[in-house]
Known about the structure:
Oligomer: single chain
Distance between the termini: 177 Å
Domain Yip1: 98-267
Pfam family, one: Yip1
Mean pLDDT: 75
Main location: Golgi
Low-confidence stretches: 30-51, 57-65, 280-292
Strand content: under 5%
GO molecular function: small GTPase binding
Largest sheet: none
Helix content: over 70%
Shape: globular
Keywords: Membrane, Transmembrane, Transmembrane helix
Radius of gyration: 42 Å
Structural class: mainly alpha
Number of strands: 0
Amino acid sequence: xxxxxELKFREFNxxxxxxxxxxxxxxxxxxxxxxxxxxxxxxxxxxxYEPDEEDDKTELLSLQKKQSSFWTFEYxxxxxxxxxxxxxxxxxxxxxxxPGKNFVWHNLQNNPDLYGPFWICAxxxxxxxxxxxxxxxxxxxxxxxxxxxxxxxxxxxxxxVIYCYAWLVPLGLWGYLHWRKGAHVTTDVYxxxxxxxxxxxxLFVYIPTAVLxxxxxxxxxxxxxxxxxxxxxxxxxxxxxxxxRSDSKxxxxxxxxxxxxxxxxxxxxxxxxxxxxxxxxxxxxxAYTTATQQEKHTPxxxxxxxxxx
Length: 309
């Protein structure tokens, strides 16, 4: 009997008294207490391992300092990081120069590229060579003794001229401005990549001009070249003058005159070389003279000369 009395359910008076004193109190279950514990542990872990803003800044600075090598593909990949809309906007800016609108500040916006200048120069090279060959063919097609042969050497000459102008002239100008800045002039200087970008996009206007040069009207051809020189030259003047004008007046006028003169020389040289009129050969007179000379040396002519006729 004693063992059965021990197994009976007994009420704890102290717990009943506590519940009677605070009827709104609730007793959490074991599962609820475990869930609260796990939540608190996870939040404490997040607070412990959450990175600070200073750590983020140091990581970004370390990534910026890790630049790729000059001989790797990743080094040049940044120069082609542009989309179609940016390239079209820069082409539009080179075709429509506005006073007070700098091409570098308004179009490049500290993000120069080599994609646009490279393909603009390549397109201009093939456009000049093909249009020059077509112009030569259209000029000579009326001659019966004309046999057309493509002039592939024009592609080589156009490539050398265009790419040397688009790279060597900006290199010389960049070196001159850095020399003047280091000497005694305090001014901002564009980077070499920005100068290449300016010259490359300024040549875009010559692509449609070279196609329109196929029209065999001399005054129209020269009118087109004047318009092309005016548009592309305005881009160069409006872009470089804010940088050059801080120099002395004679030096600023001298360097600006060189920039404009080289640009005009390139346009006129391409017009005269690739679209020159073919030389008229005197094939018929030469054939006539050779025929008459042969007739003079026939036996009948020799006998007539001996008889004194």
